[in-house]
């Protein structure tokens, strides 16, 4: 795949994924940036948290293992028949670090689920016990939840013991913590059972970055940042929307609202530049109209004078040629003035019933003997009535001149740009060569068959119609029909 095609595909993907408004795009970028930042920060924090938890767990495991080794040595030093008596006294006195019991064999422990931090703690404890008590055959180590923890050979559980025996040793309620169980054989048939909590009972949660409290804190932080970001973006883009509305109104020939000189420095500068540009364009349009009016007025007098002088010529053929040239010159002057005035009709927009407007044109055409097909649509559009009538009339007159039959249709369509009104006028004439379609809007452009069928035309109607349609925020499209004839389509926003 070439670099250009890859870039084009990437741009299409971004266009499809991102919203079409500036507010939406900036909001998506801000949300994505915040999420990526929080994710990266969470990963770094999680790695640091895990490293810190491992160091603390390793240290705590060694400390607990040394204490367990001391307890094992103590009970080994006692005669076997003294051990139950001492254990009973310890339970009644309380305050011991370990819950201690003796059994005639090892107890099966229901271990907690596999956990890397717990496995590391068991490994560290086992290694320390072997170092401190190398003369013992081995140790059975496990972490278990207190609800399922069995403490004696007869199946007695921690939950069945009196609270005074375990309230200072093991956490059972309201938030149980995993219990470390150490079992070792002191003599054949005599096993010592030690149960205790880690120095940090909830050490398994210390390396969990997704605890409920942390998730709540990150959620509140994310919501706050996103809310502030969207408010800032909205505040930033609102002046741009006002500028867009003003430019759209000015382009349609309406009085644009004044832009406030408030907000950021860049917007104030843009608003002033837009105001200055609008004034320059208005002066240019006024000067253009005055210029054409003056030219028309100044040329009519010498043209009339020349026509009178040609009447004095004795040569009738020469006189006729002069008359034709002067008539053509007069028509060109009037056409140029018409192209300026008709595309700049000053009137307010109002709701126009398209059926009524088009039916008036069709009635006159049918009275003149033309065949016109039209089905009423009941649609309306906000437009300048006289200007829109001029645009549709120019296209309708062209269709009557160049085709034996005319078909007119009005429909409402919805596409990517929103709801539109489509006015389509088709003639059944010879059509237009494809290479000549774009040049039809140029002033004084007339094709050969057009000159033959409409000798009085000047080639200005299509250009005037397009200028009017564009001033309404729409577009005028020309194409050849597959079955013959030209199709002119006016597309207007349905507002």
From TrEMBL:
Domain Histidine kinase: 294-495
Matching CDD domains: HisKA
Major subcellular site: membrane
Domain HAMP stretches: 234-286
Entry-linked Gene3D superfamilies: 1.10.287.130, HAMP domain in histidine kinase, Histidine kinase-like ATPase, C-terminal domain
Ranges that cross the membrane: 22-45
Matches recorded under SUPFAM superfamilies: ATPase domain of HSP90 chaperone/DNA topoisomerase II/histidine kinase, Homodimeric domain of signal transducing histidine kinase
Keyword Signal: no
Localisation per UniProt entry: Cell inner membrane
EC code(s) of this entry: 2.7.13.3
GO-annotated molecular function: ATP binding; phosphorelay sensor kinase activity
GO cellular component, one term: plasma membrane
Pfam families associated with the record: HAMP (PF00672), HATPase_c (PF02518), HisKA (PF00512)
Membrane topology: Multi-pass membrane protein
Catalytic activity, as annotated: ATP + protein L-histidine = ADP + protein N-phospho-L-histidine
Assigned keywords, A-Z: ATP-binding, Cell inner membrane, Cell membrane, Kinase, Membrane, Nucleotide-binding, Phosphoprotein, Transferase, Transmembrane, Transmembrane helix, Two-component regulatory system
Entries under PANTHER family matching the protein: SENSOR HISTIDINE KINASE ENVZ, SENSOR PROTEIN CREC
Protein name, per record: histidine kinase
Species this protein is from: Collimonas pratensis
């Amino acid at each position: 795949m070439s670099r250009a095609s890859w870039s084009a595909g990437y741009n299409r993907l971004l266009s499809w994924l991102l919203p079409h408004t500036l507010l939406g795009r900036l909001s998506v970028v801000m949300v994505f940036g915040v999420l990526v930042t929080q994710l990266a920060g969470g990963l770094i924090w999680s790695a640091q948290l895990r490293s810190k938890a491992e160091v603390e767990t390793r240290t705590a495991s060694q400390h607990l293992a040394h204490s367990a080794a001391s307890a094992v040595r103590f009970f080994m030093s006692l005669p076997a028949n003294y051990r139950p008596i001492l254990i009973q006294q310890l339970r009644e006195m309380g305050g011991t670090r370990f819950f201690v019991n003796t059994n005639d064999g090892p107890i099966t422990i229901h271990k907690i689920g596999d956990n890397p931090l717990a496995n590391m703690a068991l490994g560290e404890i086992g290694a320390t016990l072997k170092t401190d008590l190398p003369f013992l055959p081995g140790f059975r180590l496990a972490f278990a939840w207190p609800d399922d923890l069995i403490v004696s050979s007869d199946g007695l559980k921690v939950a069945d013991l009196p609270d005074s025996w375990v309230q200072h040793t093991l956490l059972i309620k309201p938030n149980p913590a995993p219990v470390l169980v150490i079992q070792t054989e002191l003599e054949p048939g005599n096993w010592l059972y030690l149960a205790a909590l880690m120095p940090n009972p909830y050490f398994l949660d210390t390396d969990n970055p997704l605890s409920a409290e942390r998730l709540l804190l990150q959620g509140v932080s994310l919501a706050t940042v996103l809310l502030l970001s969207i408010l800032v973006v909205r505040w930033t883009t609102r002046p741009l929307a006002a500028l867009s509305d003003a430019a759209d109104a000015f382009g349609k020939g309406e009085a644009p609202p004044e832009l406030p000189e408030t907000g950021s420095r860049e917007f104030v500068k843009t608003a002033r530049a837009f105001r200055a540009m609008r004034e320059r364009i208005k002066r240019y349009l006024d000067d253009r109209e005055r210029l054409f009016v003056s030219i028309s007025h100044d040329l009519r007098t010498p043209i009339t004078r020349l026509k009178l002088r040609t009447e004095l010529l004795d040569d009738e053929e020469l006189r006729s040629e002069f008359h034709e040239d002067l008539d053509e010159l007069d028509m060109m002057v009037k056409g140029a003035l018409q192209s300026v005035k008709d595309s700049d009709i000053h009137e307010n927009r109002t709701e126009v019933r398209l059926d009524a407007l088009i039916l008036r044109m069709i009635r006159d055409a049918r009275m003149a003997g033309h065949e016109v097909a039209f089905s009423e649509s009941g649609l309306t559009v906000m437009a300048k009535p006289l200007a829109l009538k001029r645009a549709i009339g120019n296209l309708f007159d062209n269709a009557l001149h160049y085709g034996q039959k005319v078909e007119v249709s009005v429909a409402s369509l919805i596409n990517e740009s929103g709801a539109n009104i489509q006015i389509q006028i088709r003639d059944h004439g010879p059509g237009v060569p494809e290479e000549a379609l774009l040049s039809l809007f140029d002033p004084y452009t007339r094709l050969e068959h057009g000159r033959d069928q409409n000798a009085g035309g000047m080639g200005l109607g299509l250009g005037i119609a397009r200028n009017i349609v564009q001033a309404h925020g729409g577009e005028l499209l020309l194409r050849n029909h597959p079955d013959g004839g030209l199709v002119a389509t006016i597309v207007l926003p349905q507002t």
